[in-house]
Amino acid sequence: MIARYDATQLAAAQKADLILATARADLSNSLWQAALGVDRGAATAAGAQGGRNVQGMSLDSLLAMLTSQADEAARPRELAKAAERADAAPAPAEGLPGGEVSRDGLGANVDLARHLTAAAERTGIPSAVLASIVDAEAAKDADGRWRIFSRNPRSSAAGLGQFLSGSWETLAERPGTWLNQLAEANGWLNEHGHVRGRSRSALLELRYDPQAAINGIADYARDNLDRLRAAGVAVDGNAETTARAAYLGHHLGLGDAIRFLKDGIASGRARHLLDAQIGHEAANRKIAAYGDASAAHRAWLLGYIDRNVRPERFAMMVNPVSARSA
Question: Positions of the region Disordered (predicted)?
């Protein structure tokens, strides 16, 4: 079941992390809009009308989420049933390589093993691959625990999967996804299958729910891997190859991932992406060191993947012979 968070379920440190991260993101967005000469009110109104590429929840919305009580403490029964159906739904899996998730490898995140396993069984993406994507995307505490309230101060990216607001809405509108079933059951989609304006905040809150975030990562990875394969990109072979390809699709989006893996991303676009990831000044230093933005962005991203997308950290090694004879 997907439950709504309330103040009694969160530790003081979690509340502080959420409030601080959101305040920083809101301030950063305001400063960027001011620097670009964008009227915040007009931008918000235009974004609400179009339903895309606007900031996610406001600080007030998140604080309300933390303190809501009584009738706001639980989702409707239909929502719980949709979650159960989504977890139990059979998958058109292609048997991607990789082992089961190791509870020891998850460490402080062992309580999320059940969600990783269920998402893997549903989509055919190895649970260790899914864990490696979460590990690369989410902020972490000192003990390695993934912060479910992770927030990027330079964008609307939020939650364990760091989904942008627009990407999360698109996932909810895509037939067959776990989130789509959830949104339909809760009446968040209109007759055309698009997210209703009044339902947008409730939908975006789900990025902070571990079960929803992990299933979103799995569905996004499944779609990206299928499309990368169709575009002629090698995504199979072993868990590492699959994890890297899935992460590039998750991190860059499908179009930029295909360009990155084939001919490379153009300098202007690479500069924009590098700025968004490491900040303007750090991007300047990288570009100066590598000679151009494309090379600088490529070096940074490949280095990040080498360090952080490591499915072997989470995989439980299974002996195929023993498994068959069991």
Answer: 74-100
